[in-house]
Amino acid sequence: MAKMWQGRFRKELDSKVNDFNSSISFDSRMYQHDIQGSIVHVTMLGKQGIIDEKESKTIAKELANIYDDLSAGKLQIDPSAEDIHMFIEQVLTERLGDLGKKLHTARSRNDQVALDLRMYLRTEIDAIVGLIKKLIAVLVKKAEENLHSVMPGYTHLQRAQPITFAHHLMAYVEMFKRDMVRLFNCFDLMNECPLGCGALATTTYPIDREFTAEYLGFKSPMLNSLDGVSDRDYCMELAGALAICMVHMSRLSEEVVLWCSWEFKFVELDDAYSTGSSIMPQKKNPDICELIRGKTGRAIGNLTTLLSMMKSLPLAYNKDMQEDKEAIFDSVDTVKLCLSTLAPMLDTMKVNVENMSDAGKKGFINATDCADYLVKKGLPFRDAYKITGTLVALCIDRGDTLDTLPIEEYKKLSDKFDGGIYTAISLSQCVNERKAVGGPSPEVVAKHIEKIKNTVLKEDKDED
């Protein structure tokens, strides 16, 4: 395929350099957005009298035909083309002759590429937000089913205080909710139109940038042409938001890996979302979770790639910026794949409530409540803390728990203890009384769930 820029050159591009320079292998996914942008651009050219309006309509119609042919598989993308933008323009010129060459009037490939990438990423943000919502819906469903499922809460991976499985899951709902906010923010910041910025200094043609911005769904044109073609903040910001989302999925996956182990046995994954061993017939491996953990490194690496690529670039466009697409595309693809796999895995996961409860009865996770019992009877917290610590040490020596330790042993350390201590330190009581906003009591968690349903998931409910 002939190069659109070959007039200045007397020699053909070396085939290896052509392969090195080409981006068609990864930017071809933007063909829809490239054609959409070109249709609006050429419509504007006709409206402004920059080219004949009838010619403008003919070009726009043929661009629509090219889109239909590509979508139907009637037209195959040429892998030898330099990029998707040049390929589409070449096909247009083959079909319309010299008329097709008018499409690029008042436009550079620099603002064309910047436009296509913003449009493509806007579409992908919408898709990712939709997948996060589905994951949140699954977490909310599981939380509703486990409002009263008591389990140990952990710090330092040591049993700490009693919570419920619902409370634990809703912590991840909050994380993924923040991921959605970050993505909305990315969308808003990238929603300015670079079309019309030209190579770096706009154009002498009387273009209407407000028209193209509006018809392409942007809130406004970008106000500085140098910034318009050289800005990749939106790629870095989106890569950052996606990396954080992957970290959240990785943390949840790590917990599922632990919970699946025989040491915990809090949950069991469905056979459809587990794998076996080639040599050990008893194995049931949480490979999905492990892959999500591993793929998180890719998302973090892509963010580092983009930050490193941009850190020393002078204005305006530099070819280094072609490296933006593979990095951000990989992050987008990775997040979508992980979200679409994690949600059904969690949805089909069996929760072993009894095992969680049994684990909660060990590890003295009601010790804080024992101390609080004394505080509520007038003892200073630090004194109550010391007495409870002494009781824990005694229990360890005797092979008891706070629940089974005789009341006489309690009374030896403080006359404020009576039979009510056993009610105060029962796990259900410990959980139920934690009614502060954000706490694990079923009453509070139920309100949290309802709030998520009426905000984050409300649109989905309305659509149903």
List the helices and strands and how they pair.
Layout: H1 15-21, H2 24-27, H3 31-47, H4 53-72, H5 84-96, H6 109-145, E1 150-155, E2 158-164, H7 165-190, E3 192-193, H8 209-215, E4 220-221, H9 225-230, H10 233-260, E5 267-268, H11 287-310, H12 324-347, E6 350-351, H13 353-360, H14 367-375, H15 381-398, H16 407-413, H17 420-424, H18 427-432, H19 442-454, H20 458-463
Parallel strand pairs: 3-4
Antiparallel strand pairs: 1-2, 5-6
Helix pairs in contact: 3-4, 3-6, 4-5, 6-7, 6-12, 6-19, 7-10, 7-19, 10-11, 10-12, 11-12, 14-15
Structural notes for this entry:
- The structure is a single chain.
- With 464 residues, the chain is mainly α.
- It has 20 helices and six strands.
- The strands form three sheets. Strands 1-2 form a two-stranded antiparallel ribbon. A two-stranded parallel sheet has the order 3-4. A two-stranded antiparallel ribbon has the order 5-6.
- A hairpin with a 2-residue loop joins strand 1 (150-155) and strand 2.
- The radius of gyration is 30 Å and the shape is elongated.
- It starts with 14 loop residues before the first helix and ends with a helix.
- The mean pLDDT is 94.
